[in-house]
Amino acid sequence: MLVVAFPLLVLVTGRPVAIKFEHRTSKGCNYGAPYEWQVYNTLSGIHGVPRVHYKGKLGEYYIMIMDMLGPSLWDVWNNNSHSMPVEMVACIAIEAISILEKMHSKGYVHGDVKPENFLLGPPGTLQEKKLFLVDLGLATRWKDTGTGEHVEYDQRPDVFRGTVRYASVHAHLGRTGSRRDDLESLAYTLVFLLRGRLPWQGYQGENKGFLVCKKKMATSPESLCCFCPQPFRQFIE
């Protein structure tokens, strides 16, 4: 399994883009082209989702060429002494909610909301302060395309999708993804950017996922947001 992304300069236009290589044996390519391509076919170009310029196959690899972006929120946080001013996090919250709203309106939930998957626009451009959400490989449909209703509920405790630190409690329990799960993961992301740490960090071993889930369920909004402005606690509640 191999997934690689790196910058490339398109000589015809002079516009920098990113090219993502994914080997045909990768997990998302079991039935042909990467599953992520299907999601981008629906979402590419909407508010906060980078545009895809080309998708194709080159030898043993599937390739996707898309807009080149700037640093992730994780990079910004990490390069800023592991902290962010509350004003910046508030702006991130507003923009992130708007992006998720547009994505949800198209019938998808992202499934892996975290600082590493929010990127700023290219430095030195008019979009350098604009927020983008990337990595759609775990996105799933929350809305049935036939009925327009929420997809049928299911629970598979042996299946976990996402990132342990930021995943919703329902994701830990293997439940069908919903819009609420994206918002819960966003809440954890915002608190992390503000406080620099979440109460369930530090667990190790085979039971890490179980212990993190248990801690999340036991942590009240008041405790989680004890050093955050009131609006953040209201959002989590």
Automatic annotation (TrEMBL):
Protein name: non-specific serine/threonine protein kinase
GO molecular function, one term: ATP binding
Pfam family, one: Pkinase
Matching Gene3D superfamilies: Transferase(Phosphotransferase) domain 1
EC number: 2.7.11.1
PROSITE patterns in the record: PROTEIN_KINASE_DOM, PROTEIN_KINASE_ST
Family: Belongs to the protein kinase superfamily. CK1 Ser/Thr protein kinase family. Casein kinase I subfamily.
Boundaries of every Protein kinase domain copy: 1-237
Enzyme's top EC category: transferase
Organism (species): Zea mays (Maize)
